[in-house]
Specification:
This protein is an alpha/beta fold and 285 residues long. It contains eight helices and 15 strands. It has a single domain, classed as 4-Layer Sandwich (Metallo-beta-lactamase, Chain A). It has a six-stranded mixed β-sheet with strand order 1-4-5-6-7-8. It has a five-stranded mixed β-sheet with strand order 9-10-11-12-14. It has a two-stranded antiparallel sheet with strand order 2-3. It is globular. This is MBL fold metallo-hydrolase. It comes from Rathayibacter tanaceti.
């Protein structure tokens, strides 16, 4: 590695309980999937990608970041789900120069999640007393590129991930992609906001990530210690294909969960799979 190259390091907050509905089947205990925040660092300055959720998580992240001795100048947000940006307020207490940035569509989704009474209530109820009283939203990115110590970082709007208007952050100089919730790594994929058509769009989004020819791919939800290899792109595509096929076989909720666990039982957090299966069955009407 050239000493002048940017460095990519990944912090993973482990799976943890949250205040969700009680389990209604094996593995349905209310657990939040492990999450990553990525540090992209030059010689003196660095940015983070995504923020984690709770005060304790962000405080632990900040302690890890300080160990690198860099000046944190920004936080890029990959998509609008609160678990990827709600920690921005706490993070800025640690790193006041760290300006949150995102594409305009993601800023609007974040604003919706912060102001819609039902969505906001969900997050507050899930993590009672652990979220900031006044959320800090990311600011809209001007264009699709920005620089870190003269190296280009590129926001790539791939479209569909586990929610709409998803992006990945491409770091061309080191052939890295920080994938947010477009790509998953060793964790059950959250498909509750998708139907078969949007899952096909998600598979296409993953193909556009592969087209970047990355050597490093960091998933927003990844198992602790899982390597950040490009093979997780194809694995994510296969998971989505399997989920759609099994849903189309007209299984009930438990049948979907059982069939998916037969194929993907080594992934973390079946709670997410239960949630996705319920949403898929509800869509049938």
């Amino acid at each position: 590695m050239n000493p002048n190259d940017l460095a990519v390091d990944v912090y993973v907050a482990p799976m943890r309980p949250f205040a969700g509905a009680p389990a209604r089947g094996p593995g349905d205990d209310p657990m939040w999937s492990p999450m990553s925040s990525t540090l992209i660092a030059g010689a003196e300055e660095a940015i983070l990608v995504d923020t984690l959720i709770t005060r304790d998580q962000v405080d632990s992240l900040a302690g890890w970041v300080r160990g690198f001795g860099k000046r944190i100048t920004g936080v890029y947000i990959t998509h609008g789900h609160q678990d990827h940006w709600i920690g921005l307020a706490r993070l800025q207490e640690h790193f006041p120069e760290a300006r949150g940035i995102a594409t305009p569509e993601i800023v609007e989704r974040a604003r919706f999640e912060a102001t819609d009474p039902n969505v906001s209530a969900y997050w507050k109820a899930s993590f009672p007393g652990e979220l900031p009283r006044t959320p800090v939203l990311p600011e809209p990115l001007d264009g699709s590129e920005f620089e870190l110590e003269s190296r280009i970082l590129r926001a790539v709007p791939v479209g569909q991930g586990d929610t709409e208007f998803s992006t990945v952050l491409h770091v061309p100089s080191v052939a890295a992609v920080i994938g947010g919730d477009v790509v998953y790594n060793g964790v059950h994929m959250m498909t509750a906001e998708t139907d078969e058509q949007t899952r096909e769009a998600w598979i296409a989004s993953l193909e556009s990530v592969a087209d970047l020819k990355p050597k490093v791919v960091v998933a927003g939800h990844k198992s602790v210690g899982a390597p950040d290899r490009p093979e997780i792109i194809a694995a994510s595509q296969q998971y989505l294909r399997d989920f759609s096929r099994i849903v189309n076989e007209d299984h009930g909720i438990e049948g979907i969960v059982h069939a998916m666990l037969e194929l993907h039982g080594d992934r973390d957090n079946p709670r997410t799979l239960w949630h996705s299966a319920r949403a898929a069955v509800a869509r049938r009407g």
